[in-house]
Structure formats: structure tokens, C-alpha cells
Please model this.
Amino acid sequence: MRLEKLKKLREKNFLTEEQYANLEVIISRKLFSVSYELTSLLYLGVLLFTTGVGILIYKNIGDLGHLLSIAALSALTLGCFIYAFKKSTPYSSTKVSAPTPYFDYIVLLGCLLFISVLGYLQFQFSLLDERLGQTTLVAAVIFFLAAYRFDHLGVLSLAITAFASFWGLSVSPQQWYHNDFFSSANLHITALFFGTGLAGIALVLHQRGIKQHFTFTYINFCSLIFLVGALTGIFINESSYGLYLILLYMGCALTVYAGYWQKSFLFLLYAVVFGYIATTYFLSDFLVNEAGIWFLYMLLSCGGFVAFVINYRSYFKRQS
Amino acid sequence: MKSAYNETWLYNLLLLKDAKQWQRHKLISEEQLASISAAHSSPFFHPNVIIRILLFLASLIALSGVTGLLTIFVLSISDETGQVISVMSILYGIAAFIFLEAIFIRGAKHYKSGVTEALLYHAMAFVLGGMASITDYNVHITTIGCLIVFSLSAWRYLDLISTLGAVGSLVFLLFYELYTMGGIMQQIIPIVFIVLFTPLYFVIKKQKEKPEAEVWLDCLILMEALMLLIIYAAGNYLVVRELSVNLMDMQIETGQDIPFALLFYFLTIAIPILYIYFGLKNKDVVLIRVSLFVLAFSVFTFKYYFSLGHPEITLTLAGAFLLVVTILLLRYLKTPKHGFTRENILSDKWRNANLEAFVVSQTLGGNHPTATSTDGGAGGSSAGGGSTDSF
Model:
């Protein structure tokens, strides 16, 4: 935005004198925000520090100085939580804004360090082999508690991913890309139940008016897990995938509805992409395997979709 | 100088984007936004970013269908190969440009709708591909062709990826020409880059200030950042050394170093400091952001050659240092000082709390069935207390 443009708006009386003065300060850079830069640095700091500490603990287990550093880490974790409890306003079911710009990062750091310390204790007392799952569950519980207490979306998504990995599901596109969709057989069924169950819980919480701004994150994970699960079901059951196809279409329909409800086109994107892949796979059983027909299919299906969106552009513009 | 788009509509569209942001930050009221938007109507079809991605993907698949059908048709009526196919590919690309311009931009008034990008890249790919194959993949001519096509596309369609392509082609062309000359020319490549791109940076900065350049503002900002990165890379010790070793077969014995090593050490330290100093002095957001990035790369450069062999200690210390310094800076800026504030007065349009939450879940622990959160090297860089929910 150029200053001349702002002046023009003021001349045409779109802005009051006071608003003009406020905006003029920002646009002429008399007041310059470094909020984005500083919060990025904080995030990077948390990322580097927790990664470094994680490796450090893992590499030096059993050393003499080790117990000392664990004690120091515990103290630091405690410090983070004391700070968080002291600064935060009491729990509220509505959205609470952070008291300081770095509050969110201290909560995040505290949670991650807590998990590191917990993991170490488990390892040291050799509880690891048989109770690996429980550690993940404990981590998930702590993340959930912290997310609700301190109103933290980032910790909430950590909680959901930890909870999913308790069930053996990895919620990471990077891993989906490297391995199969899920690491062992029948996990896609777990994924279907997990997605449905968590979405159900999220809806109940939403209805009760508890942290309604969390609902988007829940639905985001649930729809992805459910749709990937259904699609995996279609791919691995060569002959009898009808049930999974129906489930996938149901999932897509619900995701589209959620998108409408949450005013998010992201869910529409998921539904269209998964629906299109599944439909194409389904049609490949029937269509003649000839290149020309498939090119025509690509042209008609996607061209049709583009034409549809452009035709209903007023609808697609409204929420933007 | 003219772009393919109606300037008044573009002006209005950009103004409305700003006004919406002001409204989100409660700087103006909703009624004011409504009256501004009524007075600055813009008939462009410029949808939300997700819809753009959807339209882009769908258009690309549909266009592949068209290309496939045409290929089958052409192959069925003739068994020509080679030159004829290349010429047809260029003609097809030009036809796609005309189609984009006449049907979508003039006719349906699309502005960066996803469909336009898909058609544009499709058209460029066919023109350039055909040209490369006609010239028998001659690197000089193909790179010059890329430079021209990308520049024209960036200029006419205000497209950022074309801008990136154009700068990339220029860099590659320059490097390639000097490299093939051989001898002393190879040695002075870094100097030539710094000497050529520094004035270019100032030219771009000056262009950016002109009122008539406003429609190209995003392209110019991208170019400005790229120039800064190129100048830095040309002086960076790691880049120069690794390129010398890998491309010019330079043998570096232990105890030896690359020519002018001290100069490059100096530049590796000095350029980030210069960037950060002038960035803060002139409150130049491009300089500040680039400076943070290159500063990190300079630290990495020195760690790479003078490592103590304990990366985890470095990580921990660097993280702790960053956290402490940033928190101190944030506390210092509790009330604005020297015109800087820690408050988020007008956030970037793509900042989004939900997106940031997802980034956190993908880069930090909690994603894997291990107890310690030891992984997380994926390294995202955007996070923060969110502000808008415009997804």
C-alpha cells in the first residue's frame, strides 16, 4: 500500500481523520512490526533446543553428568509450567488470547521438554520395551491437558498426533510418502474408527461450547485420517472394495459438509482429491484400457469440474 | 508498460485486499469496508487460495487430456517425427497463450484463478520444450529462450513463478557462459556476480517506489529478495568452495584453501551484518527477513568447516541462545522503541493459526511412537500466535 493511495481514501472520506492517522503511521513505517520475525525465531529456538536436548539425552544415557542435566531439564520444564500457570488467565471454554507474545512458545517448550524427561525416566527404569504405547498415551494426555488449559492450537495438534500414534497411526504426509499408507496390515480399519470416533468427540465438545475454535483442527486430522484409511482399504482389497468405496464417499460428503459448516475450502479440497482418486480407480475396472478414452476422461471430468466452479463462482467467492 | 489485466480493476482489487486486512485488525469498521468495496468494485474472478489450488490441479489434468488426445490424433494422421513435432509443439503453446488471453483473461475476467496459472505454465512448457528440441537442446539458446519467455510472462501476467524462472535463467546463463569460457573467467565468477547483481538490486528497489509499478509489486519484491540471496551466495565461502570443488575439479589439499579464501570468509560474515544493519536502519522488511536467513546460513557455513563434532550440543546451545535473545527482545519492545513494535499490527495475509498448528505437529515431536521427541529436523520456519482464520 502506498501512502498516496491512503491519502486518496481519506480525501474521498472513506476513512476518518483518526483512522487515517493510525494507518499513516503503519504505512509510512513510522511504526514497524517485527512480530512475525521474532515469533519465527522463537519457534526456531524451540525446534532447535528440543531437538538438541532429545539427541543429547539419547546419546549420553548412563553418563555421570547425565543425572545433573536431567535435573536441570526438569527444573527448566517446571519453570516453563510455573510461568505458564502464573501468567495465564483462569481456564475458559472460549478463546483466550495469550498474555505475552512468547507465552505460547514457553508452553510448547515446557510440553516438549516434559515429554523428553518422561521418555528418559521410562528408558532409565527400563520400562520401555513393554510399555512404549503407554508413554505415547501419557504424552497425548499431557498435550491435551496443556492445550485446553492454555488454549494452544499447536499443542492440540501435537496431542492429536500423539494420540493417533498410540493407535499405531502416523499422521504425517512425509511418512505416507515413504512407506505404505499405514505401516502394518489392518491399520486402515483402525484409521476409520479413529477418525470417526475423534470427530464424534470433537462434535460433542463443540456442541457443549468447549473451545469451539479447536474444532477445525480436530476435523482436519479426522477427515485426513479417515479418507486415507478408506483409500488404503480400496487399494489393498483388490476384488471387494465396495464397502470402502461407499465409506469413502460418505467421508467425502461429510467433509464437504464440514467445509460448508466451518467455512473452509480446505475440506472441499480433501473431498474432491480423495473422491477423484477413488472414482478413477473404480472406473479403471470398467473402462476399456485405451489411452484415448482415458485422455477424454481426464478432459471431461476435470474440465467439467473447472466449469462447475466457474459457473458457481459467486458461491465460491463469498467465503473467501 | 502494460500487463494483461485492466489496471483500474487491479488497483481496486489490491486496495480491497488491504482494506479487508484493516477490517480484520479492527482499524476500520465493517460498514467502512462495505462502502470502500462498493466504490472500488473489481469484476475479476480471483478466488481463495484453496480454490485456486483445486482449479490449478483440475486444469492441469484436463489440459493433459487435451494434449494426449491431440498427440493421438497427430500420430494417427502422419508418422512425422522430430522437427515437425517440435514446430507443432511451439504452435500449440502459442495457441494456449492466445486461449488464455482471449477466453480467460479478456472474456471470463480471470485474475490468477488457478486456471490462468495452469494454462500459462502449460503454454510456456510447450513453447520452451519445442524450442529446445528444435535447437537440438543447445544450452545457450535454450537458456536465453527461457529467460525471454519467463520474463515476458512475469511482466505480462504478473506471475511469481515466472519471475523466479526468469531470475534463475539469468543466473544460470551468466554462470554457464563464464564457466564455458574457462581459465581465469571461472575464478572470477563470484566477483562478476556481486558486481552485476548489486546495481541490479538498487535498480529494482528504485522501480518498486514508482507508482506505476504497483501492479508488479509482488514480482519486484521477489526479485529484490532473490538479488540479495544471489549476492550473498556469490560471496559465501561454502557455496564458492563446494562449487569450485564439484564443478571445476579443484583439488584442495589439507592445509590449503581456495583462492581468495580470506575474502570469502570476510564476505560470509560481513554480508549478513550489512543486511541486518541496513534492514533495521531503513525498516526494510525484505532485507530483515533475508538477513535472518543468510545469518543462519553463515553460522552453518562456519560450523560445517570448523565443527567440534557435537551437532546436538550446537543445536541445544543455538536453540537456547535464540530463545533467550528473542524473549529479551520481545520484553524490550513491550512499548515501541525506535519505531519498532512487537505487536502484530498488520499480519501477512497468509498467516493462519490453523496452518501454524499443523506445521507444529509436523515438525515437532509427538508424531511418532517413540518416547523422546528426538526428531523434528524437517525444519519449518513459520509459526506464531495466529491472527486470521481466512483459510
Remarks:
- Chain A has a mean pLDDT of 83.
